[in-house]
Write a structure and sequence with these properties.
heterodimer; A: mainly beta; seven-stranded mixed sheet; B: six-stranded mixed sheet; five-stranded antiparallel sheet
Chain lengths: 110, 111
């Protein structure tokens, strides 16, 4: 079974803090993704990576950055957290056509 | 631009009452159409991939079908544990391998 894990299920941070969300997959997948999911807006792609040290912007990259130093790990960084970044964050990895998601991190920025 | 529209947005069924969820799509050459199930507060769980019109896939009470313009997720004799949000996504042939997601159908099955 493919396993995608995320470092935290719930996180509460203050405005202006730097926030790190970690994602690890155990299936040697090349492609990894970060989404945020908000009610009424569905899944929106923040960043994706198709190889180590390679990254591409998705639909809503502003206010975020990513890091992929190892194949199995893809990190999402909120440089200076703001209240409008309160959301559910989902990491996914992909092989061929099937995308596998982690359990999600519910981030609240106060 | 690839587009995915799911309907209805929400569906309430009685246990045992069969129904279908719809996923309409426009894509410049379909590589694959995907169905996911998402429980509240959790990540989406992969269900099916369909590649060509006429293809069908089944899993327990779920059956997914595909035409050139839409896909249906048929739920036969649903149980309360089938309550979830069902997401549809498409991926175009060639170029980007990033799927385009619909906004989902929230299904509630009452006992």
């Amino acid at each position: 079974d493919v396993k995608v894990t995320q470092s935290s299920r719930y996180l509460v941070k203050r405005t202006g803090e730097k926030v790190f969300l970690e994602c690890v997959q155990d299936m040697d997948h090349e492609n990894m993704f970060w989404y945020r999911q908000d009610p009424g807006l569905g899944l929106r792609l923040i960043y994706f990576s198709y190889d180590v040290k390679m990254k591409e912007k998705g639909d809503i990259p502003e206010g975020y950055s990513v890091s992929r130093e190892k194949k199995e790990r893809f990190s999402l960084i909120l440089e200076s957290a703001s209240t409008n970044q309160t959301s559910m964050y989902l990491c996914a990895s992909k092989v061929w056509d099937e995308q596998y998601f982690g359990p999600g991190t519910r981030l609240t920025v106060t | 631009e690839d587009q995915v529209t799911q309907s209805p947005e929400a569906l309430r069924l009685q246990e045992g009452e069969s129904s279908s969820l719809n996923c309409s799509y426009t894509v410049s050459g379909l590589r694959g159409l995907f169905w996911y199930r998402q429980d509240p507060g959790k990540g989406p769980e992969f269900l099916f991939t369909l590649y060509s019109a006429g293809e069908e896939k089944e899993k327990e009470r779920l059956k997914a079908t595909l035409t050139k313009k839409e896909s249906f997720l048929h739920i036969t004799a649903p149980k309360p544990e089938d309550s979830a949000t069902y997401l549809c996504a498409v991926q175009a042939r060639g170029g980007s391998y990033i799927p385009t997601f619909g906004r989902g159908t929230s299904l509630i099955v009452h006992p």
